[in-house]
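Hi D.,

Good news: the full-assembly prediction came through. Inputs first.
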Amino acid sequence: MSEPASSSAVEQAASGKPGFDVTFTVSGALTGARKTLPLAASVFAVGTVFGVLARQAGLPAAESLSMSALVFAGAAQFIALGLWTAPLPVLTIILTTLVVNLRHVLMGAAWRARYPDLSAPRVYSSAFVMVDESWAMTMREVEDPSGTSDAAFMLGSGLALFLAWISAAAIGQTLGGLVRDPAEWGLDFAFTAAVVALLVGMWKGKRDLVPWDVAAVVAVAASHWLPGKWYILLGALAGSVAGALTDAD
Amino acid sequence: MRTEALVTILGMALVTYATRAGGMWLVGRASPSPRVQAWLRQVPGAVLVSIIAPVALASGPAETAAALAAALVAARTRNLLLAMLVGVAAVRLLRFWMV
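Then the structure:
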């Protein structure tokens, strides 16, 4: 590989030319982890709240910690706590989790399309740590011409978030009532502010106006009328289709 | 651990992983056509806008103003941490003033 510009490597990977070796290194994973640290702090704050609420909902530590470690999906876990009664509505909780996480299908497809030649073990290990935050950081990096094209970025980013999430759940579970509501400090807004900042970096000009406006309108309307996380999936589908239809190239 | 709790957690883990791997599997199975590729390139911006829109645009003036502050800091500095901190501080102050 003689081209010095990493942006050409990204384009080549995105165009799916055969024979292109996708970079997947420890250093790429570390870059992902390092750049994700601000979001790991926000995930940590949310994770402690989960630990506290899990304890209040009557989950023993083994249950709340294994849920955080195996499921690793904030919104679905909070909703599960709300449904956690005796007897346990097992199927309802599992089906709700599926619906809440359907947006991941779209996110995973968009990520994978950037690395068509990545091997299955690398793809499906990355899948385990693809959460909103790691995916957002990765897609921002992918779209940045000066960003890294290393496909291990999402794995490193996601592992950093995973460590924050499970350690926070353990702390919340242990400290219980000592942890205060992050909303008191405006910390509930940290993720929104971070995504706003990532979007500023992804702005490519007027061609983004149509997909982003359509996504915003549909998401706001859907969040008003529908429960759970349907608004993300519906807004994303509407906005991306509108963008694909109106974009000249 | 109670059996039904274990089954619930394992079921949640399974369906969650299926959603994460499912889209990757679909794209890896058949190389997407140029048209589908063009659509998938529109997905990141549309997902992220959808994630923030209800909070940033439709939950109150404090949140909207704080989102604007975070956007301005990000545009000027390209610093994610700073934009986050300014957004959080702004929402904290504005909620206090606007109550």
